[in-house]
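Support reply, case 0932

Customer input (verbatim):
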Amino acid sequence: MSLTSSLKDPGSPMSRFLSEHLPQPENVLADYRLRVRRSTAHVVPAAPSGQRPDWRMLGHTIDHRLRISLGAPTGQPIREGVRRAALDDDGWPSLEIISAVQAAGMVLLEELDRYEAAEGQPLALEPAAEERLIRLCHLASGFEAIFRHAGWVRGNTLGLCEPGAGLDDLAAAVPGYVVDDIRAQMALASGPGPFTALRSLPADRRICGPVFDGSLHVGGADADFILDRALIDCKATIRPERLGRAEIYQLAGYLLLDYSNQYAIERVSLYLSRQGALIDWSVADFLGLLGARLELPDLRAACRHALTDGDEGAPPPPKDQRRPLPRPRSTAPVQDSLFD
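Our regenerated output:
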């Protein structure tokens, strides 16, 4: 069970811990929605009439393309997805197609590896090179899906190719609307705005796909980016106002799973790739809005204790010994009742 799967299950140890110790995600959401209204840019995919955009794959594809701009073209999920493509879904796809897809995947990894560079890559290449790269990123998303599901799931478009198909055949099959959509999001990222500044950071302050001390305690968890000590989750939604507690708790989960403070995270952020907007909070403000009554090191120790059935970490102090973190100065005071 991954972190996102854990958060979908209200009875999971992570969901129960967050609900008890960070009980006020609505405060973060209120602040987020107030700030997101200022975003005027809006990129919407133009899929052919009657065709529903593959939202999940588009989200993974823009994530991969942004990572390449930061100098990290591949990661363990993609490489592991190529290997796990050998695991069919009860006979689908055929062995011939699996063989072709895995061979194409190996060539894909070799081509993507050419984009690795400490200085990163431009946010927009010349047109033909950009189109090719977007198509490769979309294929990489298909392999990541295989990794996330520990094998094939029917409907993965990689499995719809012909036996003997090569990488060029798979790339040519990527729908044109995908190329146009990712190109538009990258154009937004390359304009004056937050991602341009993030891409210019020194290489040692750009981390893509970070995993955490506690990742395996939720069945696997890797975030999108940690850039200049800011934990950033990329969201490619056309309705940013609809993000809810799951997205806020996802950020909180990543923050708490860094038990040893390996990444020294100072801020948590949402990058809205279709709006070109970065909504962020300091860790102190984020936890204060969430209603935390423990400091971050104690929260992490208590979370570790909860996720390991008490074998690791330390239990939280009794409730009467907990103190709420101060609320951010920018938020309005809260009156608990009419009689206060």
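We compared this against your earlier run and they match. Two observations from our side: The first helix runs from residue 3 to 8. Residues 285 and 329 are 9 Å apart (CA to CA). Please reopen the case if you see a mismatch on your end.
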